[in-house]
Amino acid sequence: MFEQRIYNFSAGPSMLPLQVLEQAGREITNYQGSGMSVMEMSHRSKVFAKIFAETKEKFRTLLQVPENYEIMFLQGGASTQFSAIPMNLMGMTGKADYALTGNFSTSAWKEAKRYGDAIVACTSEGENHCDIPTSFQVRPDASYFYYCSNNTIYGTQWKEVPDTGAVPLVCDMSSEICSKPIDVSKFGVIYAGAQKNLAPAGVTIVIVRKDLIGHAMPQTPMMLDWKNQADNDSMLNTPPCWCIYMLGLVCDWLEVQGGLSGVQKINESKAKMLYDALDATQIFACHAKKEARSDMNVTFRTASAELDALFVAEAEKIGLSNLKGHRKVGGMRASIYNAMPVEGVEKLCDFVTRFDKANR
Ligand SMILES: *Cc1c(COP(=O)(O)O)cnc(C)c1O
């Protein structure tokens, strides 16, 4: 039992900003004098239409999405886009190239193989995905090149956007979207499940360059065809209304943090603080190679599974929660997305230092 909110290091769903939760709480039974909750509103109502349009506009401004890109708010999670991407794009040339840097990109590639000639352009599998490949091949006639910019489970992150020339770049940004500014014009498609860094689970943001819409394979289910969704402004059926409203509140909160460049500074300093604390210990080692370390998911371990378990259990007792690593990596994982306060990371660093001294 916790009397207060704890520092929740879960990889997703993960912490949301306290101010956002408080505002949602204040408005939960009567949204701005409408007499009802956003959860109870028709998605076709004027009140919700305004929430939807404003959220989309706020998101476009925040991420500086150019006008020649469509922004869609869809359901089915990031995983549904593993299928939607080949179904919408691979019909162009029948080929697609995949960078495999973790669990999610590998799942996406396996799915793509069902729809055409999807090959592995590079992989970090041999080293249990502790690194990001530095070179890769792109077939000039590939319909797209696919990669995952931040590997949630392994704690690695691409530091540069891969240069694929004229081949459209497709990126799974689920666990780093809106953690820093990006140049959207370098991408063909950016997509992300919201539950890591943006909103509650239930909405998936899909940003597509408009010329890449309208190439779906004939057998594409109508709900997965981006043209159908874009033509209907993501309202082919009932959209995830509550999650879209929450996304709007998170966008407002991000503006208060100084926009994406403001939040980037905070994120970089939180990550540096934690990596510095870990590097200064004797008993902890990071899973990711230094050059590939993620600012969002910090993976580390001791030399012993028993000591790892003790660390997780003792941390839990002092309100540092959900630090157990994913079973594919073992050890610990601290997810320090936008909403993790600096104080949470400070408290974790302090605990890491004390645990190290006590268990050498
Ligand atoms: C969590 C995650 C997914 C899966 O997201 P769902 O919305 O649960 O389908 C995919 N890719 C990355 C990088 C993730 O972190």
Number of helices: 9
State the total count of DSSP E strands: 14
How much helical structure, as a percent, in the residues? 25-40%
Shape: globular
**Spatial ordering of strands, largest sheet:** 2-10-9-8-5-3-4
Please state the structural category: alpha/beta
Order of helices and strands: EHHEHEHEEEEEEEHHHEEHEEH
**Uncertain ranges:** none
User: What do the pLDDT scores average to?
Assistant: 98
> What is the CA-based Rg, rounded?
21 Å
**First-residue to last-residue Cα separation:** 31 Å
Give the distinct bound molecules: pyridoxal-5'-phosphate
Concise account of the structure shown:
The chain is α/β, with parallel strands linked by helices and 360 residues long. The chain has helices at 18-26, 46-63, 77-89, 103-112, 226-231, 241-256, 259-279, 305-317, 342-358, and strands spanning 7-8, 69-74, 95-100, 117-123, 145-148, 150-151, 156-157, 169-172, 189-193, 204-209, 285-286, 297-301, 320-321, 332-335. The chain binds pyridoxal-5'-phosphate.
